[in-house]
Amino acid sequence: MPIRILDPQVAAKIAAGEVVERPASAVKELAENALDAGATRITIETQGGGLGLIRVTDDGQGIPVLDLEVALERHATSKITSEADLDALSTLGFRGEALPSIAAVSRLTLTSRARGQEQGAYVRARGGVLERQGAAGCPEGTTVLVQDLFANIPARRKFLRSEASEASRIHRAVSHLALAFPAVRFQLIQNGKEAFLSSGDGDLRRVLAQVYGDEVADALLEVRGDDGEGRQVWGFASPPSLHRANRSGVSLFVNRRWVQSPMLLQAVEEAYRGLLMEGRHPLACLHLGLPPGEVDANVHPTKQEVRFSKEGAVFALVQRAVRGVLTAQSPVPLVAPQSFSRSIPPMYPFSPPPQSGKPAAAGESALRLIPPRQPEASRPVGTPGDQTPMSQALPTLRVLGQAAGTYIIAEGPQGVYLIDQHAAHERIRYEQVQRGVKERQPEAQGLLEPLPVELSHEQLQTLAAWKEVLAGFGFQGEPFGERAYLLRGLPAGVKDLPPDALLAEVLDLLSRAQDPTQAADALAASVACHSAVRAGDVLAHQEMAALVRQLEATESPHTCPHGRPTMLHLSSSNLEREFGRR
Ligand code: ADP
Ligand code: MG
Fold this sequence. Notes:
The chain is of the alpha+beta class. Helices cover 32% and strands 23% of the residues.
């Protein structure tokens, strides 16, 4: 067959397949047009799961009589005029495809009266071909009536599910539009019965109550975040006690557009790390307000998929905002240092443990602690030349990313490094705190109001015994009555413990100290631990780069103050060996 340009009607039918996959997509497109027209009330009626009839009525600005016919043409839109407009979209529609696509696969009647006009008009098309048009007596706003959807493409009709299933997809689409636009009143009538109604009073929690019920809506926690760079997140997320077996309870909106974004979904789930049981998922309804230039909605005809130009920043904003409310309401338990394992599990991609009787070569394991902290006797003999230098200095590292919200992945001249962000930051903070104390300029903060802390007799004794050391760290105050202490100041930067809990922990540590040096070490380690970033905190690239640079500048970059390694090293030569490259 020779190559020919497709007949416009055939082309429209093909395009229609992408935009209007099923009745719910037609409903979504029509309602989005109403929203773009500034409607505050939108009524959606359907029959037979949308296959019999869909009618969307709005009180928006309407379409001028002369534009009615054009609205059904392909690529006809009033929303953008130039390519540059694509970079700053403020409307849901912009492709000029919905009306012609729906018209191509149904019998469509578009009736509208533009605001301020005396009279309205209508156009009717069948299979995309204009049949009738004329004047119409109608209120201001627009009504689109779609009948016999997909009647002229039996293949598509066959592919659709039952009427009930299509009806429930429509319900889902409408409820998500209502979640996206709480200030718009949405009414859905299916087979003559009201199936959904939102009040349109602007209260998102009230819409959530419509969707999930009062009990769930009441339990949801309010989320709010702003990164100070023009990106905001707001909405609701479930407390850890409320969860679901799948991810369908997470609804995400970007600039009011309901999106499917694995990245955003992951950011939300990341915030619940360690708070939900395996296999359980949170409920959330989150809105993201991003500079339009950072979002590309022009990825797919249905516009449900979006691309972000600042993915990392968006991820961090969402993860932090949600994590913030979750921890504020149920503090994350601190991981005790001893629960960290220092052993390397003998599984792929790690090398099998060395055969007994044969001296182990350090180079045999691709993954190795830095520095190897084996006792002298078991230290490998005959170490190959590719071993990491034993000196304390770190090579210059380039940050590649973050894994599990916990490990910074970096690259150096000799391979790949996994850095435990908490351990590394602890080391940095430990040396900073010690320096401050040594220079008699501790990082301290005064309390706005002195805090009375009840202490046991023993604790008061410890406090008296280590008074100087405590003062050197910025702990200030005085005894208060018989059994209490009036705390006035404490070391700065402690994020995860209230002042009284910090004091209690510190006194416990001091009670076991033998001499002032030991006492000061224990204090510095404790303050460092509580002021360091935690495992699970998602970090922005610059933050990780700054952390690695600071770690490079420390005196003992390889271990945290408790002696845990700050990093693991996968040496280039061992990687090559593991992958059979040499
Ligand atoms: P798009 O939404 O991408 O512009 P559509 O095919 O969905 O493309 O609609 C074409 C045009 O018809 C819109 O740009 C708009 O001017 C007009 N239109 C469609 N529906 C409505 C409505 N409910 N109210 C006002 N104008 C509408
Ligand atoms: Mg549209």
